[in-house]
Design goal:
Number of helices: 9
Protein name: Retrotransposon gag domain-containing protein
Shape: globular
Organism: Rotaria magnacalcarata
Radius of gyration: 21 Å
Order of helices and strands: HHHHHHHHH
Largest sheet: none
């Protein structure tokens, strides 16, 4: 058997500190290897603040274990949102994601390590961990959701927008408006 050189940081359960080191290493490599536009390590106050915010968000991001209470769509959205803070490339998003997998999701990834590109991994995670019944449940929730008598229009709006994005992240504005109009209080509807 030949000896395989495996970086010790990439084996076993990844801790937040380890994943931060890997992400920092990849970030620096991607910044140093960029030939189209030369970038430097953050030096100004704004970039430093963004890196602090990024590290804090990454360390506070819950691990995804494949259970129902933490939805895969929410997890992926959080990864991409945190990645946007530092203009992360796909390698960094991939690394951030895999570092935060745990339990069933980690076991699944260990069996699917050929997914080396972020978009491939994202698609496969969504396919594997999106519950079949969750789409129909979300649709029913959207259909049944009405503005409560003591609920502000802002609160109702936020709830509908969240449901729409969970049901279909690429839902058109026209469809979202239709769902909003569907459940708004009659007293707020303008007669046409």
């Amino acid at each position: 058997l030949r000896s395989i050189d495996i970086d010790p940081e990439l084996t076993g359960n990844l801790l937040t500190k380890t994943s931060e080191r890997i992400v920092k290493k990849l970030t620096l490599e991607s910044l140093n290897n960029t030939t189209e536009n030369i970038q430097t390590i953050p030096t100004n106050m704004h970039d430093s603040a963004m890196m602090i915010c990024y590290r804090e968000c990454l360390s506070n991001l819950s691990k995804f274990n494949g259970s129902e209470e933490y939805k895969i769509l929410q997890f992926i959205s959080n990864i991409e949102r945190i990645g946007k803070m530092i203009d992360a490339n796909e390698n960094i998003l991939h690394c951030m994601c895999t570092a935060k997998l745990d339990g069933e999701a980690r076991r699944w990834y260990d069996d699917n390590m050929s997914l080396t590109q972020w978009e491939q991994l994202k698609f496969a995670l969504l396919e594997r961990f999106t519950r079949c019944d969750s789409s129909s449940k979300l649709f029913e929730q959207l259909k049944e959701r009405k503005q409560k008598t003591d609920e502000t229009i802002t609160s109702y709006y936020d709830a509908i927008i969240k449901l729409c994005h969970e049901y279909d992240p690429s839902m058109s504005q026209k469809m979202i408006i239709s769902w909003l109009e569907n459940g708004i209080k009659d007293s707020l509807k303008i007669p046409i």
